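To: structure desk
From: M.T.
Subject: fold request, one chain
Message: Could you run this one when you get a chance? Sequence is below, nothing fancy, just the single chain.
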Amino acid sequence: MKPALIRHSSATRVALLLAATAVVSPVPSAVAQEAALPPAQEQALETSDGVRFAAWHYPVPSESQAVATVILIHDLGGSHKTVGDLARSLQKAGCAVVAPDLRGHGSSSSRAGDGAAARGEQGESPQLLRKSDFEAMAASSGRVRDDPASSNRGEIEAVRAWIKRQADAGKLDIDSLCVVGCGLGATVAAMWTAADWNWPPTTGGPQGQQVRALVLVSPAMSKRGLSMTAPLASEPLRFSVPVMVLAGSGDREAARVFDRFKLSRPKEWFQQRDGQQPETAKDLQAPADATAFFIQCNTTLSGDKLATDATINAAEKMKTFIGLSLARKRD
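Reply: Done. Structure tokens follow.
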């Protein structure tokens, strides 16, 4: 394997790293490094429609500078706990991570006035959530984004507002903002990313276009009445935001989602489908120049379970993709 890698260009090695699915066995130094990481810090936040929810911040060591700030969104029925291993792996890789419990999940409430989050109790069953609840999670609109009185904030927008306050205090970097969504959380992530890019500028400057990279783990075209059609048709996701789709070998829905990216970015895609040779767009000079990646892993897992499986090593793939995305010049 090593001689073959030596013959490849650095750009191809980047693509191979994205496609790698080798098991990474912990070594003593890695275990010690993980033990030295700062513990996750719980934050109590609230949406503009009065839903109280909890989010966990996984900071990098105080003496370090984060390579990226990542909002990590769990799947239906999950919580920050079900993506905790991925959050810690990304933290270990140098990313500052914020993982919220979406409404009706984990310790967050399901509707305005519900005190479940404050009491640390389980909210209403996620299975009882409606399409409107999921749309509310991704809500992001208004006149002045950082004015709570004139903006519509769902969970992800409330997390962004918290990150912005931390950035203003010099504690986080919102200019390296990336979003990772798993399962139904991938649809929420795509919807919110499109909304972020659609915020109009004000006389004080730009308000949106802060998401620099988007990772969709096991996305579906439609689930629980929530469709991916609108965000995929938006100009930001068609042309502007670098995207990586990560999925299992039999995941036809994720493949359908990526095929939409291929149609809108005919010269900028790279794919590694399970059991097949890597493919690139016809006119792509190097895999690292792609803006749409599809990595299909040899597994039947999906959503949070795929994202946190040690044999997939999703964090390393995401770190490589995020690094490529942040290195790109902004328009």
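Reply (cont.): Confidence is low (pLDDT under 50) at residues 1-10, 21-32, 113-123. Let me know if you need anything else for the meeting.
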